[in-house]
Amino acid sequence: MTLKERVEQAFGPDAEERVLRFLREKELAGCGDDTQRWLALFEAYEQWRNQFLLWEDRTYVDGITGWNLCMDVCKLRLPEGGREDWTAYLYRMTLLVVINGMGAGERTSLAAGKEYHNLSAVVSDYYVNADYVSLTQEQWLEEISELLERSWKKYQQFPGSSPAYHREMEKNYPKFSSILERLAQNTKCCEVVRMNQYGGDDTVWYFGRAQDDFCIMRVSDSM
Questions:
Q1: For residues 35 and 186, is the Cβ–Cβ distance under 8 A?
Q2: CA angle, 39 as apex, 37 and 42 as ends, to 5°?
């Protein structure tokens, strides 16, 4: 089965519903309410990090259509011996990326039931707006490089007036470029799949499979 077939089989046209059902009926089935589910999910997240995560990075630059163009990327170990249920693996690894993007304070509040008490908040990045597309690694990184270039041009034209924001952008544009360079030099994906089309508030996911590891990138540019 190709990576595109695995990703499409896992997420389909209703990824939000599928991932939430997986959490409630399988991964967190023993929990009585959503507060317990958040706690159990954060415990599972730590286990996934220890078992699968090789490296991670994230940054943001000036948004093209939204406030900020955000990128999260993780390089992960593949399932051992090919025995892993690939649908469950993809759900767990994308959830790892989602939870990675939460601050410690947000996780504490969620676990305490103080905000976003409903577990459905965790699947807000899974809305599917387009077909699944197979790419080469070069096409994948070119797409992200083009977004970075569009962001930089917009920022130069409309830089705003916040000194603190300018200082962040002085660090983040080079960091964004360095992440892409690291991926180009150290990742050799034989298959890449894009879930969603850039534009609007919907998150775009990239899945890249190499011989010895797996990459997931999340890109968003929402208001």
A1: no
A2: 105
